[in-house]
């Protein structure tokens, strides 16, 4: 469709034209061809029996409904597929065309923070197409479903819900009470996610469904923690971490949003009564006894109480005379050293910077080089600590900022305020400004494991596709730091570490408390029964358990049959945004804990973005539920869903306005097959994906074309056009095979779209109409179109499983071959098996004929030739003699081209 989604007039005009075309074709089918089809099937007694499907049934012995309906086609097949066990690897060993090879994948476990959005649908569409293709090839396929507990994200969502519905804060509940609320949320959202996956046609083995906090996963997490600790790769230390004061927890880098500010910007922050200004550079004077002052610029004046030095570049001549001198702190008057360090950029600002090791990663490194002790002046809750003095202690840090600015003015040490472009770190879960705090946390040493991960890609043992991601991979691992894996949350895997109360800062690790007590006794030399152990209240980073997913889902650390048969995985397919935080950590921990790569190939697909170019995110309210595209939805319902969520008022207003602009008339019903086909047509490679509903509607019309094409039989003997369409079919099979082998699904969708729409419907069916109209009761078995339908539907099945199953079940069985019970386990057509149909020279001749036909049609339009006016009339600016002469001349030219 060429019209945009929000151009409703264009859309409805186009749809009216398409409907008229369909009505003409359907009239032809119902009056001429359907009787032939029905009679042929009855004479051959090849009507398939009724297929019973759980609570519903599809009677495939009845004629096709007159028009394609996604709701009708997609209503009942999935429960039957599951019930028959087609998605289980054990079933595939029974297939006549079984290859004996295995193909295994795991779904990137969606977070139970809410329902799936269109970005998840892209992942499912690509993965399921690959899985179904391998299954139809005869491979033993395992595709494991699962969901992620998403510790910090889920806890934040539940906290918002509790406040919205009951005006209750987490800390007003006990840990057990709060966890009960989270489990209720998980059960509700987890079930909803499973229903969405089924609606998308995902051919997952549901008997192996897992959750990252189920007993098996918990055992794997504990085992991994213990093994890493014993290997010296996991330790506890006090160092700077990303800290969300609103959540009172450390957070990972992926949960830090870098928000660029062009200059002065007002932001509303959690816990702060008034908007806070950012993007400003404050100039502060540090007095020097007997010398001119040193002016320092800062965007964070609230951290001034934590300053322990001022640094300049050793070659900056402006400050050479102050080397080894001391300055006065502008707030306390205490003496601070002026230090020299080559990391200081002399051409930025005044060339002098304040050093706050407790609240800046760069300052922490600088301070460590010069032996400076850090001063922590911001507490876990975002208030100022006692080190700031009574006048600031307990104040919100941004309220304290105002008091500090006033104090500087009163003391005559304020030197100006100016706009300053900057990047502000924001917690994506809470919307608060991220602080860097010194905290005692658990860390994983990543250098050694990271080197192995980088080497795996460099050596070719691990293949990243598209290959341009290799540069990011190597850069990240060459600069990787240790990974903070502890979180100050209640929802998640409790860390299996225990504090020995009788000893100073003595921690032991064990699978159970009894094991930890034995370790403590050996470490302290005291009887274990005399020691008091206190388990760490913190939980592990969600990415820790997610990094174990490829093998924990197969039963690790137990030596299970699934682990032996399907690990390492054949392929890891996911979004490019997860390359480093998830894929990288799976590779590190997989190699460390299992001794081998968890997979040898990684396929990274594009990111789905909204009209503003933003990533689809529940926290932004810009997500689209795939079910709304599949079934259709009114604008009012879309708006109600937003209001029922946990968006803050500002984001809610933005999201609601975007919906009104993008979907003024709601979203029409498109169906699962159309959605999957459209998503796969964009391909797994390349840049961002800006999806429009009009594209999906176009795929729905494509489904309608296929639906209306199938009841047409073509009888022997073969005409040249019959040989041509079979050659096109063989070429399509070869292109589909190439697309699946290279995992470029856009090649597959393009080939199938061209065959069904342009070769079969637009050319072949139009060509055989006159033959059928002259002899509507010719005897003989269906041949050519049966082959087109059988092969074409099997080619289509991995992408449009519902439509393919519905139509394929209605085909008469091929003589001499026992039919497969479902198209999902029928053999996928191989290029080699159809090579005898391929006639490139015949296709070239038909291409020339098609060019001639197109030129003739253009002439008819130009000269207004119709059935009512076969000779044409004098048109504007062209008298009849000229018209006839022009027609004659061009006709001779076309005749020559057609004969050639």
Automatic annotation (TrEMBL):
Keywords: Aminoacyl-tRNA synthetase, ATP-binding, Ligase, Mitochondrion, Nucleotide-binding, Protein biosynthesis, Transit peptide. GO terms for biological process: valyl-tRNA aminoacylation. GO terms for cellular component: cytosol; mitochondrion. It is found in: Mitochondrion. Its EC number is 6.1.1.9. Pfam families: Anticodon_1 (PF08264), tRNA-synt_1 (PF00133). PANTHER family: VALINE--TRNA LIGASE, MITOCHONDRIAL, VALYL-TRNA SYNTHETASES. This is Valine--tRNA ligase, mitochondrial. The lineage of its organism: Eukaryota, Metazoa, Chordata, Craniata, Vertebrata.
